[in-house]
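Field log, afternoon session.

UNIT: design team B
ACTIVITY: writing a sequence onto a fixed backbone
BACKBONE:
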C-alpha cells in the first residue's frame, strides 16, 4: 500500500511522534523562585493550542541543593510541574547536574552548588582537566564517581540522593502522569560526554577540542589500566594538540597518527569505556530512585558533526565517542542503555550537510543516521532535538525525515519515540513562525490532532523495573562493529510546505 493511501486513524496513530518544547533556561531564578508565572502560563497554553504533548525543563542541581549537602528546596519546581499539569501538558524533567553557562545558546549562569565548588578550592582535581591543567567547573569529573570526598558522599551518591528526593517530592505528579520522562544529566550541557570543547576556555568551532582526563583521579585510573594491560610505561596523550587545532596539525590525529597505534587504541578504548561506565552506573541509580514509577528514563548524546567526514573523527574522539569508519562509537552506548530500558536522545536533527562549512568536514546527516540506526539495532527507543533554534521549513522537513526515515508506514517503524524542540521564545511565538510550528507539530503527529491517551499510539508507560544484569565489557565492545544502516528516504512525505 502506498504511504499516501494510509487513512485508517489507528494505522496513522502508530506513526505518532510525541512533541515536547524546551522551556527557557531561567524560568526558575537562581534564588529558587518561579519567574513570571502568568507569562509562563500564557506560553504553556499557547503551546497546548499548538497541539504539543508537553514541555521539558532543566531541574538545576545548583539551585535545588544550593544551601548544603542534602538541603533540597524543590518548591519552585513543584510550582512549575503543577502549572504544567494545570495547562494540560506533560513534563520531561532533566536532572541537571551541570553548570548552566558556557555552552552554545546559554544566556544564563547557574553554577553547580557552592558547597561543592568550595571542596574544589582545596581539591581542584574534582573537575575535568585538560593537559595544560585548566579546570572545567561545569561538571564533576567522572574520576570522583566513587571518591567519598563530598562530606562523606561520592559523586554517584550525590546524584542518587538528588533523584530519590525528587521522586519523593513529586510522587503525586508522577503518579498522575504529569512527569513522564526523566533525562539524567551525565556531563557538560547534560550530555554523556567529556567537556572537550568549552567556549569558556577559548574553543571555537570547528576546533577538534582536547581530551579531558588529566585530573589526578583519571590519571591514576589510566595508569592502573595500562599496568593491568602489561604496559606500565604508557602515559596519557601529550601530542593531541589544542582546542582550536585542525587534526592534521597534531601527531595524534594526523595521517598515520597515534590514534591508529596499539597505544592510541588502548587509550581511546579506555577513555570511551570510562564514559559508558559512568552513564551505566548513574542510570542504575536512577532506576532504583524511580523504581515502579510510570515514566521513561533518558540520556542525551551530543551531535558532534564536525570532522565526521575526516578519517580521524577528531572532535568525536576528544568528547569520548570512539567512532571511526571501522568502529561504531555509538552502538555500545545504545547497548548499555538497553539494560536500563532507557531512551537515547540525540541532537542536531535539523541540520543538513549542504548548510555546513566544507572546511569543517561536517556531516550531520550521516551522523544522525548512524546513531539512530545503532539505537534501533539495539532495540531501544530514540528521542531527538534540534541543536540550534530554527523556524524555517527546511529545518522542520529535515526533522520530520529523521523522525520517520521511511515516512508513514503500516506499523509505524522505524520511527522516533519523541522529539523535543529547542526552545520556547518570543521568536517562536511570532505569528508566521508559530503557524509553521503548528503545522510541524501536526505532521509529527502523522497529520492527526493531539491524542491524550498514549495507549492509542502505542506509548503506554509501564512501571520502571530494576536494571537488567550488567553487560560484560567484551559484549559491549562487540557493538563497535559497523553495520549497514537502514535505508533513509531522500525527503519526508509530510513536508510542512507540502
Amino acid at each position: 500500500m502506498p504511504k499516501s493511501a494510509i487513512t485508517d486513524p489507528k494505522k496513522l496513530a502508530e506513526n505518532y511522534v510525541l512533541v515536547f518544547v524546551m522551556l527557557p533556561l531561567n524560568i526558575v531564578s537562581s534564588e529558587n523562585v518561579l519567574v513570571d508565572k502568568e507569562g509562563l502560563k500564557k506560553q504553556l497554553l499557547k503551546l497546548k493550542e499548538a497541539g504539543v504533548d508537553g514541555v521539558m525543563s532543566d531541574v538545576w542541581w545548583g539551585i535545588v541543593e544550593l544551601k548544603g549537602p542534602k538541603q533540597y528546596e524543590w518548591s519552585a519546581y513543584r510550582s512549575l510541574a503543577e502549572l504544567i499539569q494545570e495547562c494540560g501538558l506533560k513534563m520531561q524533567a532533566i536532572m541537571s547536574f551541570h553548570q548552566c553557562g558556557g555552552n552554545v545558546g546559554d544566556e544564563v549562569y547557574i553554577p553547580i552548588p557552592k558547597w561543592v565548588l568550595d571542596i574544589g578550592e582545596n581539591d581542584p582535581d574534582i573537575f575535568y582537566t585538560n593537559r595544560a591543567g585548566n579546570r572545567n567547573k561545569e561538571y564533576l569529573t567522572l574520576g570522583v564517581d566513587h571518591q567519598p570526598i563530598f562530606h562523606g558522599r561520592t559523586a554517584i551518591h550525590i546524584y542518587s540522593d538528588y533523584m530519590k528526593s525528587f521522586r519523593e517530592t513529586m510522587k503525586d505528579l508522577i503518579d498522575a502522569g504529569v512527569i513522564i520522562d526523566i533525562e539524567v544529566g551525565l556531563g557538560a550541557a547534560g550530555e554523556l560526554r567529556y567537556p572537550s570543547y568549552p567556549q569558556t576556555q577559548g574553543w571555537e568551532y570547528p576546533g577538534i577540542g582536547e581530551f579531558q582526563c588529566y585530573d589526578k583521579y583519571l590519571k591514576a585510573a589510566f595508569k592502573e589500566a595500562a599496568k593491568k594491560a602489561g604496559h606500565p610505561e604508557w602515559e596519557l596523550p601529550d601530542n593531541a594538540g589544542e582546542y582550536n587545532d585542525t587534526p592534521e596539525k597534531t601527531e595524534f590525529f594526523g595521517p598515520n597518527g597515534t590514534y591508529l597505534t596499539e597505544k592510541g587504541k588502548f587509550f581511546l578504548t579506555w577513555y570511551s569505556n570510562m564514559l559508558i561506565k559512568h552513564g551505566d552506573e548513574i542510570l542504575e541509580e536512577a532506576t532504583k530512585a524511580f523504581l515502579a514509577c510510570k515514566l521513561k528514563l533518558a540520556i542525551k548524546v551530543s551531535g558532534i558533526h564536525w570532522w565526521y567526514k575526516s578519517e580521524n573523527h577528531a572532535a568525536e574522539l576528544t568528547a569520548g565517542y570512539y567512532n571511526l569508519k571501522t568502529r561504531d562509537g555509538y552502538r555500545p552506548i545504545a547497548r548499555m542503555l538497553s539494560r536500563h530500558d532507557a531512551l537515547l536522545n540525540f541532537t542536531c536533527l535539523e541540520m543538513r550537510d549542504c548548510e555546513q562549512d566544507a572546511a569543517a568536514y561536517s556531516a550531520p546527516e550521516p551522523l544522525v543516521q548512524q546513531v539512530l540506526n545503532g539505537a534501533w539495532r539495539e532495540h531501544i527507543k530514540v528521542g531527538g532535538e534540534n541543536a540550534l533554534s530554527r523556524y524555517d521549513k527546511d529545518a522542520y522537513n529535515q526533522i520530520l525525515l529523521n523522525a520517520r526515515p521511511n515516512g508513514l508506514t503500516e506499523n509505524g517503524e522505524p520511527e522516533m519515540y519523541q522529539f523535543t524542540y529547542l526552545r520556547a521564545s518570543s521568536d517562536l511565538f511570532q505569528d508566521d513562525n508559530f503557524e509553521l510550528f503548528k503545522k510541524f507539530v501536526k505532521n509529527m503527529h502523522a497529520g492527526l490532532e493531539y491524542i491524550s491517551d498514549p495507549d492509542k499510539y502505542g506509548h503506554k508507560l509501564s512501571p520502571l523495573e530494576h536494571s537488567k544484569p550488567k553487560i560484560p565489557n567484551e559484549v559491549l565492545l562487540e557493538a563497535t562493529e559497523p553495520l549497514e544502516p537502514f535505508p533513509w528516504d531522500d525527503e519526508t512525505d509530510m513536508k510542512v510546505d507540502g
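LOG NOTE: The mean pLDDT is 96.
NEXT ACTIVITY: expression trials, pending approval
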